[in-house]
Amino acid sequence: MTTPDLLDCDTHFSDHEPGLWAGDAPGAPRVVTHEDRRLLRIGDLLFPKPTGTGQGNPSGLGHLIGPGHDADRAPFMAANGIATAVLQPGFVGLSFQAVPGPDDRVGLAARYDELAAQACAKSELDLRWTILLSAEDPAWSLAEVHRHRDDPYLVGATIRPTARTREARLGDPAFTPVLEALAAHGLALFVHGGTGCHQWSPLADAYADYTLTHALGHMGEQMIALADLLTRPDGLPEGLRVVMLESGVGWIPPFLERLDGHVRRLDHGRAVPSAVFAGHVAVAPDPGERYAAWAVRELGTGNVVFGSDYPHWDTVRAGEWLEAFGELCPRDALRDNTRRFVPRLAEAPGRGAA
């Protein structure tokens, strides 16, 4: 049996469970039944969005293949040779950005951060976590990085590619101190979208069909985030590492080529986006994507990490991933990539630490 050695950058915290929020304020997340579906309610909004443009999974909370507890996560990690897994946000963490009131919004995110930290500290598995960031709240985000930066299980911060409105962007210089703090403390920036979360998602918002909102929402949001990050007026801080999750990769090489062409012709003083990408950004390819292997070769095999997405409906098994990408990126190289882009996976203590 293979010794567990994979580092999983994309597994999910079951942050919607009622017991986590039972003692919190009335506006705290609640699991409700709506038209025979279990959904999450935050304030007056239902998640994932059940109907209309930009709608989420029609199964609601029922699309999970497991509860995401140690009892089901442990056999999944063992069967897939996963030594360490990074808990990305679940329904609450991916939806909090839709809350309009800034105090309520950051209060919810701050409580999420505490719960994620506690979950990792208590687990018998080697789990790590990420701070939630808010593009609409850069000062709070910076304070949150400083509040948790010494947590031994912390490996990075996660931000949505787009915010509640189009006005809050990752290219805004107001967000530079947050990026600088992440780089200074060896914390990776994970960029992770979600469908049906009542926030600005231009391509998903053009459709009221989950097949299309899911296919286009993640990719469309990440296009905006990538353009914003790679063309920032003040650039990306030296040492900042960015990991793009769950958006596919086949579209990235032609997208970078188009950005490069426009920068070369129209903005001679700006860094070439593909060069910025090569020095700062990793991707987590999906073996089910037809052109993923081609994209990995184009982007560089040193910019690749593994993400399972457990326990979501489109969970990736390690065997499938290695069959698709193992020749391009063998296990040792994959491990080295991940430790370079998420350096605290190699530093943080824990059971079975990397």
Report the top-level CATH class. Alpha Beta
Alpha carbon gyration radius: 19 Å
Would you identify the CATH architecture?
A: Alpha-Beta Barrel
In one word, what is the shape? globular
Spell the H/E element sequence. Answer: EHEEEHEHEHEHEHEHHEHHHH
Strand content: 5-15%
Specify the biggest β-sheet: 7 strands, parallel
CATH superfamily: Metal-dependent hydrolases
What do the pLDDT scores average to?
93
For the record, give the distance between the C-alpha atoms at the N and C termini, rounded to a whole number: 18 Å
Structural class: alpha/beta
Number of helices: 12
Main sheet strand line-up: 1-5-6-7-8-9-10
Helical residue percent band? 25-40%
Number of strands: 10
In the CATH hierarchy, the third-tier topology is known as TIM Barrel
Catalogue the unreliable spans.
350-354
Number of structural units classed as domains:
1
Organism: Sphaerisporangium aureirubrum
Domain Amidohydrolase-related: 8-330
Protein name: Amidohydrolase family protein
Keywords: Lyase
